[in-house]
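Subject line: Sequence and fold of a protein, written as C-alpha cells
Body of memo: The sequence and its C-alpha cells, given next.
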Amino acid sequence: MRPSSSASSSLSVTVTNAGAAAPARSDWATIRKLLPYLWQYRWRVGIALAFMLGAKLSNVGVPLLLKSLVDSLSIQPGSAASMAVVPLGLLLAYGSLRLMTSLFTELRELIFAKATEGTARSISLQVFRHLHDLSLRFHLERQTGGMTRDIERGTRAVHSLISYSLYSIVPTLIEVALVLSLLAIKFDAWFAWITLAALALYITFTITVTEWRTKFRKQLNELDSVAHSRAIDSLLNYETVKYFNNEDFEAGRYDASLEKLRRAQLKAQSTLSLLNTGQQLIIATALVLMLWRATEGVVAGTMSLGDLVMVNAFMIQLYIPLNFLGVIYREIKQSLTDLDKMFTLLEREREVADAPGAVPLQVSGAAVCFDKVSFAYDKSRPILHEVSFEIPAGKKVAVVGPSGSGKSTLARLLFRFYDIEEGSIRIDGQDLRSVTQGSLRRAIGIVPQDTVLFNDTIAYNIAYGRPGASPQEVEAAAKAAHIHDFIAASPKGYETLVGERGLKLSGGEKQRVAIARTLLKDPPILIFDEATSALDSSNERAIQAELESAAQNKTVLVIAHRLSTVIDAHEILVLQSGRIVERGHHEQLLAQQGVYARMWRLQQSGGETASASAPEPAAG
C-alpha cells in the first residue's frame, strides 16, 4: 500500500506542502540564508568588489576625458602645434580608460567565478544529500519531473542572484552616486535633481509593477512544473501508454497543460510590455530634460560644448544599466522565489532521522528481533498489529501470506525507511532507532521483488552493491547469479547499457543483476523479497542453490509467495491482515491443516501459480 496522499497534479504544490504551514519567507530572509554559503569566499568577494570599483571609476572618467577632448578642439587658429599634441594624449588616455574598464570587469568576473560556482555547487549538493535523507513516504508522494525542475531553477537562481546583485545593482548604484556628485559639483543642482527624480520615479514604478506581476510569474512557474511533470511521467511509463493505446490521451493531457501555460505566458508578456513602456517613458523624459538644460547652458555661455557632450555621455552611460534595471529587478525577484523554493525543500524535516548520540551498529551474530511491532502508513489503516518474531543469527526465517498482509513492510521497517509506532526492532540487541542509519543499511542486503536499475552499464549496476569493486569481483558475482553467460554473449559485454530503469533487460535479467549486486555487497543480513519470482523454473532452481550458498552463516529473511522456495526455513511465519496467524517449520504447518496447508495444496495443484508469482502491492 502506498501512503495515502492528496497528491496534487502540480509538483510545486507537492514540494511546498512541506512548508505550507510556515509563514512566507521574506526576500531578505532568503538572502540571509544564502550569505553563509558566500561567506567562505569572502576574500574573493572583497577583491571582486575592488575590481568592480576600479571599473566604475574608469567608466566615469571616460566622459570627463571626452569633454576635455572636445574642448581641446575648440582652439584658436594658429595653435596647430598644440592641436597635434594635446588630443593625442587625450585619445591615448581615453583608450586606456576604456581598456581598464573592460580589464577590471573581466578580472572581477574571473575572481568571482569560483565563488559563484562554488556556492551553487554547495547548495545543490546539500539539497541532493537532503533528498536522499528524506523518508520513503516523501519520495512516494513527490513527482520527479517537477521537483527536478524546482532544483534546476533554484541552482540557476544562485548564479542569477549573485551575478545581478554584484555585477549590476551594486555597480549601477556606485556609478549613479559618482555621476550625481560630479553633476552637482561641476554644474547647477538641477542636473542632479532631474537625474535623482528620474531614478526615484523609475525605481518606484518598476518595483510597484513588478510586485503586481509576481503572482503571474508564480502561476507561470507552477504551470510549467505541471506540464514538465506530466511529460516526464508519461515518458517514464512509455510501455504502459503503449499497452493501452493511450498516446492521444497522453498528448491531450500534455496539450491541456501547455494551453494553460500558453495563457499564463501571454498574460506575463502583456504585463511585461506595460512595465517596459513605462520605464522607457521615464528614461526618455529625463534624458530630454537633461539635454534641454545642457543646451541652455551652452547657449548662455555657462557651459562649453564639451560639457554638453559630457552630460550626454553620462546620461547614455546611466541609461544603459537603468534600461536593464527593471529586467534585473524582475530576475532578482524571480531568483529569490526560486531560491526560496529550493531552501523550503532543504528545510523539509526528515521523518526518519538519526537520534542524538546514535552510534554505529555493532554486528556480532546478526540476530534480528521484532518485538510487538505495530505500524501504519496511514493511521486510519493499520498494517501490522503487534508482530513478534526472531531470526536467530545465521538462520533463515520465511514470511508467507496473501498480498497486502504486510510482508514487504517488514523489510522496509528493517531498513528503517519508516519508524514504527509501537514495539521495537533489534539487531543483536540494539534498537534500530539508537544506531546510525548508514551503519544499519550497510549490514543489510536485499534482492527486491521489483528491481529498478540505473540507466548505466550492467557492470555499473552490479558494482553498485560495493562501489570500488574490481572487474573480477563483479564478474564473480555475475557468475554466481547465473547472468555472466548472458552478459558475455552481448556485443558490449559488461558495458551494455540497460536503459531507463533497466527497461532494455527482461524481468528475469534485471532480477539476476539485482541478485549479483547483493551477492557483491555480501552483508551479514539478507532479505529475499520474492528474489526469483521473475525467473523460469530451471534458472530458479540454479539461482536458488546459489542463494542458499550465499546465505550460509548469514541471517536471512525470506518474503515468499512460492512456498516451495521456503520449505527449508528455520521457521515459517504466516502473515494475514498484519498478524501472525501461524508459525513453525514446513511439516508442522502442514500438520496443523490451517492457512499454510491450504496455500500449499492450492500451489501444488497449480491453482495459484499465477497469483503466487504476481507482484505484491507496495504495502505488503
Notes: The domain at 356-443+523-620 is CATH 3.40.50.300 (Rossmann fold). The chain has three domains: 14-346, 356-443+523-620, 453-516.
